[in-house]
Amino acid sequence: MNHDSDITPISEHQASKKVERPAESARFMLKCRDYEDEVFTSDAYALAIPEATADAISRYAYDHYPVGSFLEAVITNDLRTAICSADPYNMYALPAIIKLIYNTVPATARGDQKKYDNWTRGTPLNGNW
Question: Crossing angle for the helix pair 51-63 and 88-104, nearest 10 degrees?
Fold first, then answer.
């Protein structure tokens, strides 16, 4: 099964951009087995999220890069679409994915379609990120 269905290929220009990321990026939190219980309730949650999904969340949060239909639905609180478009791995990891998004994606970039659209276009919402 292909886990890259939610990931859109990036252009050479986007790949060459240097982006400053916090030390505790989504990937770091998922890889660190000793991470204290701030984001996940157990290691099982952290290990449940497919790496491609965690990478897509990280690129969205730090690079303002659009995500696939499943993650867009989760980010915009569209549960029905999220469940209908999830593959079995993301369906299993859905509670952990929601926690990761809540704890790593700024509030101005999640919650509804307008916030998602503004974030991916690089347009601040009301002048504030």
Answer: 30
Nearest residue to 28 (alpha-carbon basis) of 10, 15, 46? 46
Q: Is residue 12 part of a domain?
A: no
**38 is a domain residue:** yes
State which residues form the domain around 82: 23-121
* 7 falls within a domain: no
* Low-confidence stretches of the chain (pLDDT beneath 70): 1-47, 123-129
Q: Please tell me the total count of domains within the chain.
A: 1
CA separation for the pair 7, 53 (Å, rounded)? 8
**Exposed/middle/buried for residue 84 (C-beta within 10 Å: 0-12, 13-18, 19+):** exposed
Prediction pTM value: 0.64
Residue 76's nearest CA partner among 126, 120, 10 is: 120
